Amino acid sequence: MSVSLSPARHLLVIGGYGVVGTAVVDLMTKTPGWQLTTAARRSPPASLLDGSPAPAHIRVDLLDAASTQQAFADLASVTDLVFCAYSERESMAASVAPNLAMLDHSLKALGQAGAKLQQVVLIGGGKSYGEHLGPYKTPAKESDPRFMGPIFYNDQEDLLWRTAEREGFAWTVLRPDGVMGPSLNSPMNILTGIASFAAISQALRLPLRFPGSLEAWTALHQATDSRVLAEAVLWALTTANARQQVFNVTNGDHFRWQQLWPQIAGFFGLDSAAPQPMNLGVQMADKAPLWAAIVDAHDLRQTPLEQIAAWPFVDGWLNAGYDMVQSTIKIRQAGFSGCIDSHQSVLEQLQRLRDYRLIP
Q: Is the pLDDT at 8 greater than 80, yes or no?
């Protein structure tokens, strides 16, 4: 059963222009009945990817409690929060404190500003099941016991639940996996990483070789289309069944790189060739000038290679040589039906990258 929208609902999206935030902002700017504000460490883009004006934006260092309080001082009208900010660190242990602090400072600053939150949606991920550690129990379910940390998702969830109980707002945790979609100046994006690798292969007149492990080439994997995730966010904000719940969110199917990779090659007009495992962090270390030349030759958005691809992130994704499967039964039984064929998702999202002049 859906909750009727108040005309006064004001949504704050923290982490507004990563791959998740970009999709949420894109959907919410087109959804009547919402006032939208974004917040992030970086400045907002001059316009959204479709050319429409960006919503009101607050530039803030969420790691600084005092600065966050000052930046959020005028946000008393905020009623809803989507938190999808992330701070990358050198290890899982090192990532706990900063990512917990950003959520903590955000919630406290909104409270200090006088905001009366109704709903908070926290974006988590598959690492909640230990998939970054190696083979794990599949299909993974929200009811599975936690594994031994460090894992900042657990700390963020505990903080959210304590604060919600004390302050009286509702919460939903969404756990996507492998989010596919466009983003601006946000290199933690598997799609832009693969696309830039393919564009560089194209420029060098090479076939497209899968650079991950041979085990990953044949393993069963999953992804979450950023548009499906944004729809799940809107559903969580407006549906009573989503309150005080954790949900996995994926496309609803699975894929193997060995079957998807030739279609990616075909999108770029390339032949695919036998996989060639490589360390992309090493192989792409000298490719920034070539990427800059590609950008100029094709009149693309001026995006440096380090802002379109985080190669260690891509390496991690393409070397997961085991099944990655999360159950989505719970969210479907709760009423969310969003889904998409993963092959279709990748090809459509690559076309969006091309339409937005992010890739040739």
A: no
- For residues 80 and 228, state if they share a domain: yes
Question: Could you tell me the residue range of the domain that residue 125 belongs to?
Answer: 10-179+224-249
Query: Looking at residue 16, what DSSP letter applies?
Result: T
Separation CA 327–CA 350 (nearest Å): 26
- Co-location of 211 and 169 in the same domain: no
Residue 202 and residue 287: Cα distance in Å, rounded? 13
Query: Which H or E run includes 11?
Result: strand 10-14
Residue 4 has pLDDT above 60, yes or no: no
How many structural domains is the chain composed of?
2
User: Model-level pTM?
Assistant: 0.95
- Asked which of 233, 249, 265 is the last residue of a domain, the reply is 249
In our burial notation (b when 16+ CB lie closer than 10 A, e otherwise), range 110-139 reads bbbbebebbbbbbbbbbbbbbbeeeebebb
Instruction: Check whether 3 has a pLDDT greater than 70.
Output: no
